[in-house]
Amino acid sequence: MKNEKFENWGNSMKCGWRVALMSLAFLFIFSALSPAHLLGADKGPKIQLKASIDKLLLVLRDENLKGVEKRELRRERIAEVVFLQFDMSRMAKYSLGRGWRDLNKLERDQFTDLFRKLMAKSYVSTIDAYAGEEISYLKEIVKGDKAEVRTVVVGGSKEIPLSYKLMLSDGRWLIYDVIIENVSLVRNYRSQLSPIIKKYGFAGLVERMEKRIALAGTKKDG
Predict the structure, then answer these.
(1) Number of folded domains in the chain?
(2) Whose CA is closest to 177, among 85, 77, 51?
(3) Is this structure's pTM higher than 0.90?
(4) pLDDT in tens, 167-181
């Protein structure tokens, strides 16, 4: 029973992250079809999102990475490209909430690394299964060093509103949260992770995250 909360966290977040990471892949693919991906003087968040994604297309289209036998290598390459667009340290910090303040630097680095591995193991496979959905851009809002890019993911007759929260870091706009149908992924993570670290401590949280990563790694999918 003590692992129930974390198990529910993994299950409840799977659908949301499937949409979020898949839609990020759509963003990459859609951008390659649009002349807006060519950088000019304007290097705002939307333009940077679009411009950075040709690398993912190269991975998805690389014939040397096709096939089941190359799946792990292909997904490693996908993760490398996708997570370059995420501010993983900030996302990990916000997802842990107040518990982050009690960690030392080594613990923060360890948690961030596990957080990234969990996302990669659990959800990068959804990008590998791109099914032709498209993304439409609705609005870009920039306030100082923070921005929001609002989009709609269109697949068949269903439209899913999705917004990216970004922060300017060393001249690059990096994603630190994704809002899916008005639900923040970071807040959703925090609502699940915070009680675990509060009840079992950092060591207990690490143990549960490592188990989830190992479990995700044993799943068989095409």
Answers:
(1) 1
(2) 85
(3) no
(4) 999 888 899 998 888
